[in-house]
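Retro notes - structure team

What went well: the batch runner handled both jobs without manual restarts.
What didn't: labels got mixed up in the shared folder, which is why I'm recording both outputs here explicitly, each with its sequence directly above its tokens.

Job 1
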Amino acid sequence: MARYRAFAAEQGVTRLPWWYMVDPKATTQHGLVQLDTLEPYQRFLYHAVTCEPQALEQGDTRAFLAPGACRPMLTQVILKDPVCTTHQLAGVMMLERMACTPKDALPGLANTLLQDIEQQMGWDVVLKDAYLQRVMMLMWQGRPGRLKPVWLHRVYQAQQPDGGWAGGRQLPELPQWAQPWMLRAQLARWWPSRFHAGAGSDFHASAQGLLIAALALQELR
């Protein structure tokens, strides 16, 4: 960790507000981030680490403090943004960690979002980056009782030979040749200039998979 902090300081990362996620007591500079390049959920996370609401196309990031920000789930999550609720919950957790709002200012919001995530797990059974993120948030929020053993087992089944996780669509119960990403992999072999195989481990999915594993081990202690 000391080596990582030293490297981050050398690269100037510790001056960015995002560093609050690592060290809530850090001294950072808020003007270093180009807010107009951020997605709405990223602006909410920025709000969470700086305690400063940020403008959206309509209103501001305080819209994420309402339980219906990612509802109706059919359009807002399933069809539009599969990680809308998990990103919202991450922001709420960070707001509470940074003490941006009183503890009683968001009554039941985290629990409501966890219930929504549970519903999404029942609807969206294809294992992909969003699936990993939902499992991670159910565990990270300290609600292991909400997690069905089969969900965790599927995450472990999806671990790649190199130890990481892939963000592409998978059904761990099926053999490799029947995986949803196999067609894309074949197309990539035929037309490499137009298609990307996307079947290997990637950083984002692997980071989530490793955190899930760490949280599961901690729960067993």
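Job 2
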Amino acid sequence: MEIRFVVISYIATFGGIGVLVAVMLRRARALAQRLPPEDRPWT
């Protein structure tokens, strides 16, 4: 019983972090496409 709770907690934690990272990366890529090339310091 306790092992199942721990495993579910780890899955929920890392799954939630993964979803947040994916959303942030999608938003960052969308915003980068809207930025003019002369304002992109990474290129």
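One thing worth noting from job 2: DSSP finds one helix and no strands in the chain.
We'll revisit the folder naming next retro.
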